[in-house]
Design goal:
Layout lengths: L5 E2 L10 E2 L18 H4 L2 H11 L12 H11 L5 E4 L6 H8 L3 E4 L5 H15 L37 H13 L12 E5 L2 E6 L14 E2 L1 H6 L7 E5 L1 E2 L3 H6 L2 E5 L8
Parallel strand pairs: 3-4, 6-8, 7-9, 8-10
Antiparallel strand pairs: 1-2, 5-6
Helix pairs in contact: 3-4, 4-5
Bound molecules: S-adenosylmethionine.
Length: 264
């Protein structure tokens, strides 16, 4: 107070005091402000106009953010090549701006507009469509992949859910081989061969696993009934009665469900 650094508003009646900071004392560079005026960070009106321009005048989303706002946020918090996640993607502004600023990005959206709005918007960014916005001097380029999430394989307790064997098969295949499992294989114990290794999944619901005393239990009898594969095998099941030596002889690596189901 003695130094006249405390400010109580224009007429001295502010509820809370503010501390004055003089330009001469500030370090080089721009101090981030909590108040971003529209000429710095865009406006909601601008955001709606941007989106309408991209979608032929159609009002595609109720609460879009201006690209300039996200641009400012990414400018102060990320660098080129960084990974930006927006798990509530909305109209896709964050992903669009991140792409234009040469950041990598992941967008997650539960609504159908993931497909009807975010996807076409990002395709326009990649293609450099005529009416895309001038953010970050963007022209065109790059790309992205669009995935639809399947049912979750595990429940809250970390147990594999009932009736998810085809999802589980897809998950295991990807975790083991690094590539997506191309359809066709359906629900069967032998998932296929990759790089000389045969992969099997013995789990409830897969017909062959009902042979033998318990479903999903790897026994010698069940092993004999499985489709043959000449070479090293990786077999996933909930339990196994074969000894380590028997597994070695049969060239089998046993992986127990759910503990040894990996993720990439
Ligand atoms: C306000 S918008 C997000 C705006 C966006 N992040 C932006 O910066 O412009 C919120 C979005 O979250 C989506 N959403 C809500 N719950 C979700 C969930 N559990 N998983 C994924 N998306 C979800 C809604 O469908 C909606 O599109």
């Amino acid at each position: 107070m003695a130094d006249n650094r405390i400010w109580w508003g224009k007429d001295g009646s502010a509820e809370f005091p503010s501390e004055k900071k003089f330009l001469s004392e500030a370090k080089d560079g721009v101090v981030n402000k909590t108040w971003w005026p529209y000429d710095f960070a865009g406006s909601t009106r601008q955001a709606s106009a941007e989106l309408k321009a991209l979608f032929d005048g159609r009002k595609a989303f109720d609460t879009p953010k201006p690209e300039r706002l996200i641009y400012r946020a990414l400018q102060i918090s990320t660098g080129e090549g960084d990974l930006v996640l927006d798990s509530f993607l909305g109209s896709g502004t964050t992903a669009a701006v991140a792409h234009k600023m040469r950041r990598r990005w992941i967008g997650i959206e539960a609504g159908d507009h993931a497909r009807t709005l975010c996807k076409p918007r990002l395709e326009k960014v990649v293609d450099g469509a005529r009416r895309h916005l001038e953010t970050a001097g963007w022209k065109n380029g790059g790309g992205f992949r669009f995935f639809r999430l399947g049912h979750s394989v595990f429940d809250e307790g970390g147990h594999v859910r009932e009736g998810v064997s085809s999802h589980l098969a897809a998950h295991i295949w990807h975790a083991e081989t690094g590539v997506a499992r191309s359809g066709g294989a359906g629900e069967q114990a032998f998932l296929g061969e990759h790089a000389g290794i045969g992969y099997y999944l013995l789990f409830g619901g897969i017909p062959e696993t009902t042979v033998g005393p318990g479903k999903g239990l790897l026994t010698r009898r069940l092993l004999r009934s499985l489709p043959k594969f000449n070479g090293p095998k990786v077999i996933y099941s909930e339990a196994c009665t074969l000894s380590a030596e028997q597994l070695r002889e049969a060239d089998i690596t046993f992986r127990q469900i759910p503990y040894e189901i990996g993720a990439r």
